[in-house]
Design brief:
The complex is a heterotrimer.
Chain A lengths: L1 H31 L4 H5 L12 H8 L3 H32 L5 H10 L5 H15 L5 H26 L2 H9 L4 H12 L1 H17 L2 H6 L8 H5 L10 H32 L5
Helix pairs in contact in A: 1-13, 3-13, 4-7, 4-10, 4-13, 5-7, 7-10, 8-9, 10-13
Chain B lengths: L1 H21 L31 E7 L6 H15 L4 E7 L3 H14 L5 E4 L6 H5 L7 H6 L1 H5 L20 E13 H6 L8 H13 L13 H24 L8 H15 L12 H9 L5 E5 L1 H7 L8 E4 L11 E12 L6 H14 L2 H10 L18 H12 L2 E3 L11 H13 L4 H16 L1
Parallel strand pairs in B: 1-2, 1-3, 7-8
Antiparallel strand pairs in B: 3-7, 4-5, 4-6, 4-7
Chain C lengths: L1 H37 L1 E2 L9 E2 L3 H8 L1 H32 L6 H13 L1 H12 L6 H8 L15 H27 L3 H9 L4 H12 L1 H16 L3 H6 L11 H11 L3 H30 L1
Antiparallel strand pairs in C: 1-2
Helix pairs in contact in C: 1-13, 2-13, 3-7, 3-10, 4-7, 7-10, 10-13, 12-13
The chains are: A mainly alpha, B alpha/beta, C mainly alpha.
Chain lengths: ~280, ~450, ~290
């Protein structure tokens, strides 16, 4: 019994250590958000001499960070939902059906996690020009869906494969068709993985910069990371407001993360059947 | 748990509703998915676009709150309010790599801005080769006054060997000068250096007194790049720059080896400061302003961007960058840092006319004179300063140096036919800061030279 | 029977269609375009001819010393991924899915670095690793290990490993989520049964958790390998590939060729090589996992 306690203490110590290690940046980011440039570059970890709250005013007025947060929330929430729905449907087929092209299609999706983003910029923005997708949210959303789909299908297929087929058979005997089987039985059972992918896809869309920058010219449609560029000049960088932007932007993200992650745990409580 | 689910739902719908009202703006061409987003168009887009206006897009890096960049944006808004049938859409991205990303992409897709800022030099050859740039010469001929408002020497970067015409309109000019901390110099009984030997002397004395002569932020490779430019210009003159480009002087020849050697020695003796590879230009500025370095070589923009309006202003002095070879005293690193170009790729005649009109407006002497009020600097154009121009003794000093300058060159690799030379040389010079020998530095540069020739 | 098959085919098509359509537009088409360009010389200007040059872009890339150096750096990233990131994330996943107290705060904290964005993380770590006033060296000095003080981000090879460690620190929480999703779906009664058999603590992890997380490990492996090949953001923010190109990654080279030098052909060739490498390595990983199954 004693041995177990020692193990437990070690685990606790490690967990606390890592918590401090990972929460620390939040504190530093906050402190930096109320400093001026030299306060940051010459003493990032020191307590600010004066609290320069005007950085927040700058973030809100010069970079319109609040509107940018809303834009980012909109784009990333819509794309996240779409990724989950489209991804689950595809994963269902790939994990439950037997057909000729399955291996090839599955491998095809694999390619998606490998493409270096800089290879895709020119062809994709070319499409945006042709279809009038520049300066529109829907095009950006489609891009975010595409870039998250591979990982989603990958995760979902793996998860669905692990779910006991008895569940399917029972449902089919009850007269469920594919659509009902997926939406009524498998969706709820897959909540842990869905929530996980939701968090990952959300984070991606919320912070993505390159496409948001290349496709969006209209100031009113800037997303968070694009808006933050306001403070990074060629010969001059205003670090304080950048950190202020980061603090403002991170709050909704934390909230969403906590809410979604609650669902990951829920999966455990409902006791998904896995064989 | 049920409660939680409800909360998620409320949160999601809340966020959606909010973003629907939040992401409005001037969306009129909205297609598909975002009609909802267009509901709210009250917008802070003050320059409401009149119907029938010609729309042109202008890309720059002027997004920051520096006085001259804010002034630029203000003036574009003013242009839009004028009744001239032109509406300008600005796209300002301040970070260099992001700006270039977008510009390159737009050229690849044929969806370029009408007017944009570039640096000129060999980096713009490719545009010319593909016949994508507008030749301004006929417009400048027609409007001689416009042409004459610029200093003659400033047109040098707008013409290209093998291509007839004038392809760029100068906008921002700089020169690299030497700033020093007057307090430190007084304390140490030093006089500002006039020759390079004196500079090295100063460095030695400062170092002995435990003060960093410079604190360079070489994480940004242009810092050593600029220092080497100065060494070349100040020892080989402007001819040397041209000969380097034509390979008459080799990057591994004695002349150049000397410049690498000087820098290597200075690195070894710690004249450039401590841990220079771990500091960027922003940190370098902060260190100088904090009295942690006695000298700072930088462009003339430094006065407007970092010194004006600060307590530190009065503690700074400025001198010509010291010459190695006395004959080269009045040659300097400088020129146009920002040049306007106009694209004719997929552009209608009306758009091109409008682009030219916009450029005439944004490079008018009135514009420069007023800009000088908010952000005094050196300019490519001649104008009489307005009465509201604040006193700026530092800039007056700079202007004396400019007046004495007989010729200048910008980044020396800008004149090279190989557009990747700039990066190659800067990276090789960065190697010196890591303790590489001058020979290694030369070898790295020559590898690129040789592979380009193949 | 035949109608069932027909129905199945319809379901398959309908269910896969949205994913395939989006995928074809935004992934397959750009990949095709990259392959096309990799055999041509193009300065990236619309309307200008894309001149056929055969495989010369590939030979130039393969003859480039910097490219091989960048691949080696990628390899370091992969080693770091399997030796450090994988056990770390798995450990964190075990912690947050355990019955320990305080997991709510922990799981938010562990994920914080990813949420704070690369910009903030990079700036901060560059500061922490600064040789003169950074925290790491100051701590080393304080405990008398002065000789271990290093210029973490400017010494070749060492700087890559420094960034790798920051990378693992940042993404441990990210991969933790993937592992956690697998862990929570392991039926509780398996653990209970094991408990009855006298299995406790480490043994439960060794004989139940780890074997039943095989799918997660497989997914992690593929994501890690492919991710390491295209690493860009963190290295760009922390070292820009420098100093003197010592921390160049394949993706930073690709980026520079295209957007700094406008050599779109050569840049595409790098892209294709990365893709082929990625596919080969993923297939090999799959094979390794399949062999274990047998």
């Amino acid at each position: 019994m004693r041995k177990r306690n020692v193990g437990k203490i070690i685990i606790y110590l490690f967990a606390i250590f890592w918590t401090v290690m990972t929460l620390f940046p939040l504190l530093i980011t906050f402190l930096c958000s109320v400093k001026d440039n030299s306060g940051i570059t010459l003493g990032m970890f020191s307590w600010p001499k004066v609290f320069q709250w005007s950085n927040y005013v700058d973030a809100i007025q010069a970079a319109h960070i609040l509107r940018a947060v809303m834009n980012s929330l909109f784009v990333s929430l819509v794309s996240t939902m779409a990724v989950i729905i489209i991804g689950m449907f595809a994963a269902y087929v790939l994990s439950r059906k037997k057909f000729k092209m399955r291996g090839i299609i599955y491998s095809l999706f694999l390619v998606g996690v490998m493409v270096p983003v800089h290879c895709t910029i020119i062809p994709i923005s070319g499409m945006a020009t042709i279809t009038g997708g520049k300066n529109t949210f829907w095009f950006l959303i489609l891009i975010y869906i595409a870039f998250n789909l591979s990982q989603a299908i990958f995760l979902f297929t793996g998860y669905l494969k692990g779910i006991d087929k008895e569940l399917d058979e029972a449902a089919i005997i009850d007269g469920c068709n594919d659509f009902q089987l997926l939406t009524r039985i498998l969706f709820p059972v897959s909540i842990p993985i869905i929530s996980t992918e939701a968090i990952l896809a959300f984070i991606y869309g919320y912070g993505e910069l390159i496409f948001a920058m290349i496709l969006m010219t209209d100031v009113n449609k800037y997303t968070v990371s694009r808006a933050m560029l306001t403070f990074q000049g060629g010969y001059n960088v205003s670090l304080g407001p950048i950190f202020a932007c980061i603090i403002i932007a991170v709050l909704p993200m934390v909230l969403i993360y906590i809410l979604f992650h609650e669902k990951v745990q829920e999966g455990m409580l409902t006791g998904a059947v896995k064989g | 748990m049920k409660k939680m689910r409800k909360m998620v739902a409320i949160l999601l719908t809340g966020a959606m509703a909010l973003s629907l009202t939040a992401c409005g703006g001037s969306e009129t061409e909205s297609t598909g998915g975002t009609e909802a987003a267009a509901v709210d168009t009250e917008a802070d887009d003050s320059s409401a676009r009149k119907s029938g206006d010609i729309e042109i897009s202008v890309s720059t890096r002027y997004a920051s709150d520096n006085p001259d960049e804010s002034y630029y944006r203000e003036m574009v808004e003013k242009f839009n309010e004028m009744d001239n049938g032109i509406h300008v859409t600005m796209d300002n991205i301040s970070t260099e790599s992001d700006y270039l990303d977008k510009l390159r992409t737009s050229f690849a897709n044929g969806d370029t801005p009408n007017v944009f800022i570039e640096y000129g030099g060999s980096r713009c050859y490719d545009y010319l080769e593909s016949d994508a740039l507008l030749d301004f010469s006929s417009y400048l001929n027609e409007d001689q006054e416009w042409y004459d408002s610029f200093y003659d020497s400033m047109w040098g970067q707008s013409v290209y060997d093998g291509y007839d015409g004038i392809y760029g309109i100068p906008f921002k000019t700089y020169m690299v000068v030497l700033y020093y901390n007057k307090d430190i110099f007084a304390e140490q009984g030093l006089t500002p250096p006039a020759t390079f030997d004196e500079l090295l002397d100063c460095c030695a004395k400062l170092k002995e007194a435990g003060i960093n002569p410079f604190q360079v932020g070489e994480k940004d490779v242009y810092r050593f790049g600029h220092f080497n430019n100065c060494l070349v210009v100040k020892s080989l003159g402007v001819d040397g720059v041209d000969k380097l480009a034509s390979r008459e002087i080799a990057y591994d020849g004695d002349e150049m080896m000397k410049t690498y050697q000087i820098m290597a020695d200075m690195v070894e003796k710690g004249y450039f400061g401590e841990n220079i590879l771990d500091m960027d230009a922003t940190t370098e500025n902060a260190a100088f302003e904090d009295g942690k370095a006695a000298m700072h070589y930088d462009g003339t923009w430094y006065i407007a961007n970092n010194l004006m309006g600060t307590d530190f202003y009065d503690h700074v002095g400025v001198v010509n960058f010291p010459a190695i070879n006395a004959e080269c005293e009045n040659y300097n690193q400088g020129g146009n840092s920002d040049i306007w170009f106009a694209s004719k790729l997929n552009k209608s005649d009306e758009e091109i006319e409008a682009s030219v009109e916009f450029l005439k407006y944004i490079t008018s002497t009135e514009y420069f004179a007023e800009n000088n009020e908010v952000a005094s600097a050196i300019y490519p154009a001649k104008f009489t300063p307005t009465v509201d121009t604040p006193e700026n003794p530092l800039l007056d000093e700079v202007n004396k140096i400019v007046a004495a300058t007989t010729d200048m060159r910008t980044d020396i690799q800008n004149y090279d036919a190989d557009s990747s030379m700039l990066d190659t040389v800067r990276n090789a010079l960065q190697g010196l800061a890591m303790g590489n020998s001058p020979e290694e530095c030369a070898k790295q540069i020559m590898e690129e030279v040789n592979s380009f020739e193949q | 029977m035949r109608t069932k098959k027909k129905n199945d085919l319809l379901t398959i098509t309908l269910f896969l269609l949205p994913a395939l359509l989006i995928f074809a537009c935004f992934v397959i088409y750009p990949v095709g375009d990259t392959m096309y360009l990799s055999l041509r010389k193009w300065k990236g200007i619309f309307g200008a001819a894309k001149q056929w040059v055969g495989i010369s872009n590939y030979t130039r890339v393969l003859a480039d010393e910097n490219f091989w150096k960048s691949l080696l750096n990628s390899l370091y990233f992969m080693i770091g991924g399997f030796v450090i990131l994988m056990p770390l994330s798995y450990g964190l996943a075990l912690i947050i899915t355990s019955k320990l107290r305080g997991t709510k705060i922990m799981k938010t904290a562990f994920f914080m670095p990813v949420m704070l964005s690369t910009t903030a993380v990079a700036l901060m770590w560059v500061f922490i690793l600064n040789p003169s006033y950074g925290a790491v060296n100051q701590i080393l000095r304080a405990i008398g290990l002065e000789r271990l003080c290093k210029d973490w981000l400017s010494t070749p090879t060492l700087n890559i490993w420094s960034v790798i460690l920051v990378n693992e620190w940042m993404f441990a929480g990210y991969n933790m989520l993937i592992f956690a999703a697998g862990l929570v779906s392991i039926p509780q009664d398996l653990y209970e049964a094991a408990q009855l058999d006298g299995c406790t603590g480490w043994k439960k992890i060794r004989y139940i958790s780890i074997p039943l997380s095989k799918e997660s490990f497989k997914i992690f492996s593929v994501l890690c390998i492919t991710g390491c090949l295209k690493t860009f953001d963190l290295i760009w923010a922390m070292t820009k590939g420098g100093p003197n190109r010592s921390s160049e990654m394949p993706a930073t080279l690709l980026y520079n060729e295209a957007f700094t030098y406008k050599n779109f052909g050569k840049s595409s060739a790098i892209g294709v090589i990365l893709l082929v490498l990625g596919i080969t390595l993923s297939l090999m990983t799959n094979r390794v996992f399949r062999r274990e199954e047998d």
